[in-house]
Design goal:
single chain, alpha/beta, Rossmann fold, two-stranded antiparallel sheet
Length: 256
């Protein structure tokens, strides 16, 4: 599948992979103002997200094939990979299955383990909304607030709203994403290891990734290190962008 992508800067290639319900636009500021000064930085929309095509198939294997096709299209033989949340799991899958295309690997606030369902309320709120009936984002925000009290979460989700006629439509392929959700939260497993340099960055206020997860991580990524951003939660690149930029850029430029 041909993925939508945006490119910033020149130099060694760096691919940035967003998380569930995200899009390439979530990374524009860091891509343009930080990474793009040192790397040919490509942000992409995964299938069923953003401006990329929709398809019923939505597995890590399918998404890995999309990334490999993108790299081939862009003439990239190997690249640094940075992935957040679901994008981090995809980055892990890619590194384990296709280690020859991954240079340094950065995984943001996610581990290879199985996770409990955390998004049921979000799915239900989005699926129960009929955005075509509303003429403004303000109206949609009021409706979503009944089930999603967090304004930042609502604003994040509403970035997936696209104007359609007099109303709006979700840019996400919600049915396909929900159908595949059990795999998305499932474990990343492999008989192989990725022996390249790897950095896990966790938010100190997030419970997605803990320092106690390191033995499980090093079973797959034996040369992995972990850095904690104490003041950040799960969306650490948005909550602590300067600290996130500093630790990731240092790793990409200098290694472990």
């Amino acid at each position: 599948m041909q993925l939508f992508r945006q490119s910033y800067g020149e130099g060694p290639p760096l691919l940035i992979i967003h998380g569930l319900f995200g899009a390439s636009g979530n990374w524009v500021t860091l891509a343009r103002n930080v990474y793009g000064k040192h790397f040919r930085t490509i942000t992409l929309d995964l299938r069923n997200h953003g401006r990329s095509p929709h398809d019923d198939a939505f597995s890590y294997a399918d998404m890995s094939d999309d990334v490999l096709l993108l790299m081939d299209d862009e003439g990239i033989e190997h690249a640094h990979i940075l992935g957040h949340s679901m994008g981090g799991k995809l980055a892990m899958h890619l590194a384990l299955e296709h280690p020859e295309v991954v240079d340094r690997l950065i995984v943001a606030d996610i581990g290879p383990q199985h996770y409990p369902s955390r998004h049921g309320q979000l799915f239900e709120a989005m699926e129960s909304l009929n955005p075509e009936f509303y003429s403004s984002r303000e109206e949609i925000d009021v409706i979503l607030s009944r089930d999603i009290p967090s304004a930042p979460v609502r604003q994040f989700l509403m970035k997936n709203m696209q104007r359609e006629g007099e109303g709006y439509a979700w840019g996400l392929n919600l049915p396909a994403i929900r159908q595949a959700y059990p795999e998305i939260i499932g474990p990343i497993e492999s008989w192989e290891t990725f022996d390249g340099e790897t950095l896990f960055v966790r938010g100190g206020k997030s419970d997605y990734l803990l320092e106690s997860d390191m033995p499980r991580i090093r079973a797959l990524f034996p040369f992995a290190d972990m850095v904690t951003l104490e003041d950040a939660g799960h969306w650490l690149h948005a909550e602590s962008p300067e600290a996130f930029a500093r630790v990731t850029l240092e790793f990409l430029l200098e290694g472990r």
